[in-house]
Amino acid sequence: MSETERDLVAALRAEVAAVDPVRPCDRVAEMAGLGPRLVTRETSVARLAVRLGGGAASPRPHALRRTITLPPAEFTWEGSPEHCRLAWLRGRFLAHGSLSLAAGRAHLEFVVTPQEAEQLAGRLAEVGLPASWRIRRGSGVVTWKSAEAIAAFLGRIGASAALLELEARGVARSLRGELNRVINAESANLQRSVAAAGRQLAAIDILAEDGRLEIQPRTVRAVAEARRETPEASLSDIAVRLELHRSAVQRALDRLERLALHDDEGIGQRRRHRPCGTVGKAGGGRRAGRGVPSSGPRGTAASRSPLA
After folding, report:
1. Which 8-state DSSP code applies to residue 215?
2. Which helix (H) or strand (E) holds 178?
3. What domains can be seen in the chain, in order of their start residue?
4. pTM higher than 0.85, yes or no?
């Protein structure tokens, strides 16, 4: 994650840790979610544990991680109201959850014991937040990779301000991606248009030099002249200027390019089809497609010996 994304995650966790449950049952549920022995390096989470009734900080004053022992909390998921369940999930997230925003993607996971992973995933499904779970390197991992699911969870456990900032960044990132896509598409179209106009102008110059441009149909000559006068114009601009269909302009320019490349005066002309059974010039008096004489009894010439 970038420094800005890490700051946003830290602000989000600090906001969640600053939520002070009002109901005594919620305080008990959140303390149960934190667990009997909380290990954290976040000051905000450590302060929450102390507020909820913890003590006994780590004996090492300069340790990065603080260990806080919490009194036993009697909490039962089954039969508890939703606000108590959400308080327990808030504590579980602060104790065992992590959020990543790397590469523009949100990823939230709980790392718990293998025995708890399936149970935690089931509890999340009960409150309308289904998640996947698996065993990874001996630990149970419950995961969300959907930005919508993560936003719903964070909103329900009290991270409203940081969630708004997270959603605003997601919208801004989406807009930047869409803008980049549009700019790249327009740039590619412009490059193709410039290359096509360059080929067309070169073809027109070749045909004008050898005199073949003058014998082309009137529409082709008009399109060639319009392209010379406005090299940057699009096909639609030329079509509007000459009061032609865009397809007619495209065909005329294609014809000019083919003539310049192939030197073929027959380009654009329809082929004349001979009736079936007629004899061509290359037939030499023989029927088309057969090596037999065109007259006389069939097989007579072929069976006559040259020495007869």
Report:
1. G
2. helix 160-209
3. 3-158 (3.10.28.10), 177-262 (no CATH)
4. no
